[in-house]
Every structure is written in C-alpha cells, then in structure tokens.
Amino acid sequence: MGDDALRDALPFLQRAALTPGLRDEARDFDVDIKALREQIVAITGGEMPEIADVRRVSLRDVGLMALTVVAAYLLLSAVGDIGLSTIVDELSQATWAWVVLALVLAQVTLVTDAAATLAAVGRPLPFGPTTVLQSAVKFINLTVPSSAGRVATNLRCLQRMGAPRAEAVAGGVIDDVSNTLIQVTLFALAIPFVNVDIHTSEFSGAGPDRRLLIAIGIALAVSVVLVLAMPKVRARVLPGLRDAMNGLWSVARVRRKRMEVFGGGVASELLYAVALGATCLAYGVHLNIAQLVFVNTSASVLSSVVPVPGGIGAAEAALSAGLIAMGIDESTAFAVAITQRLCTFYLPPIWGYASLRWLVRKGYL
C-alpha cells in the first residue's frame, strides 16, 4: 500500500469500521487494534491521527435500543399505576441504612448465581464475565419474561466464552430447573414453621385449560415424528440433543458440581430472604428466617407464572399478600414490597444496562 496509504487508513482502523467477519477474526486471533495502529505509526513515522467518528448500526444495536425503550416504558407504567406520591410518602418513613443493606445483599446474589451457572457448565469459564452476565440479565429481565430472557442470554454469552452450544444449552436448563426446585423446596420446608393457613381448594380449576394441554401434546408428538421421519432434520437435531444430554449427565454425576449448582442457588434464595428481612427492619417489622423464606419464595413462584416481564405488578402483589399473611398491616406491607422490589428489580437494571454494554463491547454478546 505504501506509507501514505497506510497513514490515510489509520483513522478508520477501529472496531466500528470492521465488517462483522473481520471483527470475529480479530477476536479469534486476539488482534489488538489499538496496538496495531501504534505499530503502523512507529513504522511509517508521523503522529497518531484522530480516530474517525464512525458508528456501524447493526441489528443488535437496534434490538438493544428497543429493549431500552420497552424497559423505560414498563418502569414508567408501573410507577404510574402505583402512584408516585404514594411511593414517596411510604419511602420517607424508611430507615435508609437498612434499605442500603438490603440493596447490597441483593447484589451479592450476582456472585452466587455466577457460581451456580459455572458449575452447570461442563468446563471452566471466566468467573468475572460470568458475574457481569448475571447483572446484565437483570436488565434483560425487565423486558423479557424472566426464564426466557435468562436462558437466551446465558446461552449466547456462554457460547462466546468458549462453551459448546450443547453444554451451554445443558447449563441453561440445569440453572433454570435447579432454581425452580430450590424455590419449591424452600417453600415447602418453611411452611411448618410459619403460622399461615393454605386452602388448596381455592386453587381448584386454576390450572391450564385441558384443550391447551392436548394441543401442546399433539404439537410435541408431531415434532418428534417429523424429526424421526426426516433424515436431514434428524441429522441436525439428534446430535445436538445427544450432546445436551451428555452435558446434563456430566454435571449430574459429579457430586461437587451438584453441590455447587444447588449451593449457589440456595445461597441466592437465602440472600434474597435476608435482604427482605433488612427491608422489613427499615419499617420496624421483625420476621424470622422461616417467614422471610416463605414470603420470598412464594412471591417468586407466583410471579414467575405470570407472563409479564419481571412479574411487574404480580410480584408486588404477591409480596404484599405474603407480608399481610404474616400479620403486617396493608400500608406497611405495601411499602416493604415496593422497597424490596426497588432493591431487587427496579434499581439493578441501571448497572445491568452498563453490564450488558460491557459484555457487548468485549465480544461476549
């Protein structure tokens, strides 16, 4: 090219100006673009030119902007329905030292969730980015129903970290299933120590419609028949399914990994329960650990079945109902529920967005 052409190209030697294929190659071969610019300047002489103001707009950028808009809309809608003046009045009565403690405890779960996620994958992965991933999921959960958002984001990020797709899928399934099992188990263990009446008759007829179950069964049966009957589809689906089952077995058969997966999940649930206890203390309410676990897990399970991003509205109602069942008056229960959700759901997406951008910038998403 010659020295002059190289120097003219330097302002455009940046990540935003590269094609997606070149960006992937640069990442795969650990090419430091900044160091490459400095090397060219050293060889050709002269001074380092200003970087050209270039921004490549991709579908990922458009999607992230759409998620941001949806997140802002959901937050404003939730606050508007509850009433901003009511929130301000209730929060003004709180002891903020306890609220800060609850917020800190809720963020410690990022570490325990990362430990459980790493244990669910069959190979060692970087702990730091995996912890940042848990923070990014907080932002994703604001716009996508929790399980779907967590599984999809974990799958993409774990693959970028080096886990094969089958292991990433197996890890996501293990993570999601273990969370559900832990919540249900803790809920059942807490019931004998909580003075509350549960009338199962009130849930009669509340399950899914029988026609829906039949339709789902038919769809699954047709899918299996199509996979087995079409060689090309079978060749693409069965190896991945086999690898995913092998990944599940590789985790299930190792005692240490089982302990890490369930230990991390239990630690997260207990941290959320203790954070709820700190929030209660902010309003002068004292609950024991069994009551806190009962309220927290029941609210999590109930809000997770509502197809609303983050269970907005349902989670607040479930928390309030659980606290009222513990003998707390309605206004205080509502204040505790709102404050707890601020610490665990409404505030974390602020740094979750920054975490998501960091993962994108580093090539993990």
Write a short abstract of this structure.
By secondary structure, the chain is an all-alpha fold. The chain is built from 16 helices and no strands.
Total helices: the number is 16
Major β-sheet annotation: none
Helix content: over 70%
Label the overall shape: globular
Order of helices and strands: HHHHHHHHHHHHHHHH
The structural domain count equals: 2
Strand content: under 5%
Low-confidence stretches: 199-208
Q: What structural class do helix, strand and pairing data support?
A: mainly alpha
Protein architecture, described:
The protein has helices at residues 3-9, 20-28, 33-44, 59-82, 84-91, 96-120, 127-140, 146-161, 165-190, 210-229, 231-252, 255-282, 289-304, 314-325, 330-346, 348-361. With 365 residues, the chain is mainly α. The protein has two domains: 3-44, no CATH class; 59-201 and 241-361, no CATH class. Helix 6 runs antiparallel to helix 12 (255-282) and helix 7 (127-140) crosses helix 16. Mean pLDDT is 77; it is low at 199-208.
Name a few traits of the molecule.
365 residues; mainly alpha; 2 domains
